[in-house]
Amino acid sequence: MNNENKISKIIPVMLAFFTMGFVDLVGIATNYVKQDFNLSDTAANSFSVMVFLWFLIFSVPTGILMNKIGRKKTVLLSMVVTFAGLAIPLFIYDEIAMFIVFAFLGIGNTLMQVSLNPLLANMVNKRRLPSYLTLGQFVKAIASFVAPLIAAQAAIYYGNWKLLFTIFMVIDIVAVIYLFMTDIVEPEEKNESSSFKECFSLLGNSVIILFFIGILVHVGIDVGINITAPRLLQERVGIPLVEAGYATSLYFLFRTFGCLSGTFIMARFSPIRFFMVSVLFILAGMTGLYFCRETVTIYICVALIGLGNSNVFSIIFSNALLYMPTRNNEISGLMIMGITGGAIFPVLMGAASDAMGGQIGAVMVLTICVVYLLFLMIKMKKMALE
Description:
Layout: H1 3-20, H2 25-37, H3 41-69, H4 71-87, H5 95-121, H6 129-158, H7 163-181, H8 196-201, H9 206-236, H10 241-244, H11 246-265, H12 271-288, H13 295-309, H14 312-323, H15 328-337, H16 341-356, H17 360-385
């Protein structure tokens, strides 16, 4: 495949990565829904469960489905399901409808996360896989970054933050058509379709389970901080949600910058060393959230966490795929099942915040996630030396 032809095929895949970022609107949407329906932290954070619960239920079945219908068709199916979720708020907006919206977004994103990464893996040089996966995460982060901005501007100028769904729905349609019209040849799978038992048995591998939990806590931090950051500003600085919501955009801005820089850095340097630096950035930012009481310092902490967390997923995911390349579909399903952390940790954070009467409870839960990444950092360094 020549470079021009390769680029023409990668562009629609990257646009699909952009639609993958739509799921991150759950952070800012949760805060608006909490405000609109006067919900507690625990009740509001339960909306994230409806997004990320499906990663637990559908990740492994999606890996099996890919063995039957192929990766491209699975990605297309994911974007159709996402479209259905984005369309609902145009007609109905109440608590039940939003649970359904988040459920559709979660199911669609599960299908996409499991299938899109292996689809890209088949199109690029294996040595460059971490770099290309990071590029995909960079494109995804752009959608995550603009979502709070669009919601805020729509709320300020049109009195309707839900216009965000309309804009994303149009982009989703374009992405479906573009990918459908692109001819992507998928190699024949050498392995036969796996059973559920065979897929889950991979978690018995000590390395795979380490990576799985790593994805779990990474997503816990990712979702948790973009829910918690605006609330910290409201609680400690006393600014309204429309202004506090920019903290989420700041997080994704630095996450986007981190992905972009990581694309080039990991093409030249060891991803393991880059992972170590990334985790230390997250640790520094999370530690600061215990003490900061001013807007600027809280923003700095959020920026450090966003920068550090930007490449964690791609490094863990690529290492898992390369560790056992003959089982890519199944491992992809298991790794994406780890995105269930987006359902588990926000609920724990909400309960901790309600119990402690402030967002410090949420920060403590997030700190547990950072401690595990420190542990994984040490383990990955040892594996690289062996």
